Amino acid sequence: MKELFQHTAVTDGVTVRVAVNFLPEQSRIEAGKWFWVYHIRIENDSDDSLQLMTRHWRITDGNGDVNLVEGEGVVGEQPLIRPGRSHDYVSGCPLSTPQGSMEGFYTFLRSDGSELQAQIPLFPLAAPATAG
C-alpha cells in the first residue's frame, strides 16, 4: 500500500511531507492514552547538501496544553541530505486526549556553515470517534 502524504511545507528548497495515522492497537483508550504514528519525508530540492542537526516540535493536546520537544537529529540520526535526495523516517506521538496537533521545524547546516530552518507543517492528531 502506497503511503499518502497529507501535509506539506516548503522552505528554501526543502520540502517536508507528513503522513499520520492513528494506531488503536498501540492506544489504551480506557486508560486515557491515544497513540499516532507519523511518516516524514524530507526532500532537498536546494543546490546545497544539508545536514539535519536539530528538531523542534510543538505538540498540542485536545485541552490546549502545549509540550515543546527539542533534540538533536531525528530518531537518533543526523542525516546528510544531498541535493535531489530525500530522507524518510517514522516516529510516534502519544497524547492523553483523542485529538491534538503537531508542528515545528528542523534546523539544517549548509555546507558553508550557515543554518536553515525548515518548517514542519501543522498536522492534526485525531482518533476516530468510538461508540460510547
TrEMBL record:
<protein>
    <recommendedName>
        <fullName>Protein ApaG</fullName>
    </recommendedName>
</protein>
<dbReference type="InterPro" id="IPR023065">
    <property type="entry name" value="Uncharacterised_ApaG"/>
</dbReference>
<dbReference type="InterPro" id="IPR007474">
    <property type="entry name" value="ApaG_domain"/>
</dbReference>
<feature type="domain" description="ApaG">
    <location>
        <begin position="8"/>
        <end position="132"/>
    </location>
</feature>
<dbReference type="Pfam" id="PF04379">
    <property type="entry name" value="DUF525"/>
</dbReference>
<dbReference type="InterPro" id="IPR036767">
    <property type="entry name" value="ApaG_sf"/>
</dbReference>
<dbReference type="InterPro" id="IPR050718">
    <property type="entry name" value="ApaG-like"/>
</dbReference>
